Amino acid sequence: MEPSSPDKSPTSPTHPHPDPVLYRPNVAAILCRPDGQILIAERLRFRGAWQFPQGGVDDGESAETALFREVDEEIGVRRDLISIRSQRGGYRYAFPK
Q: What pLDDT, in 10s, does the model give residues 45-64?
């Protein structure tokens, strides 16, 4: 096998091009209190890395269902305690094959 290409995808004579980058649909929530403060959480495994609650959309799952699931999984806030005030699409992240 030849050395990895710059994007770290392996290449070989039978597979000369690296695997394409796949983008998994993702959701993220900006939780805002009535006084305007928002929640930004520090990642447990990466001290100094801050992010909003977020995660991937599972196969067959709507973005809305994924959003409520991820918020509950990541910070324990139940669906009945939050509401979606606005949304926008196109949020995604690279996902290895």
A: 889 999 999 999 999 999 99
Q: What is the DSSP string of 77-92?
A: --GGG----------E
Cα–Cα separations (whole angstroms), residue 4 to 18, 26, 27, 70: 8, 28, 31, 34
State the pTM of this model: 0.69
The whole-angstrom distance between residue 45's C-alpha and the CA centroid of its chain comes to 16
- Residue range 26-35, pLDDT digits in tens: 999 999 999 9
* Nearest Cα to Cα of residue 93 among 27, 24, 43, 28: 24
CB 92 within 8 A of CB 24: yes
Cα separation of the two ends of the chain: 18
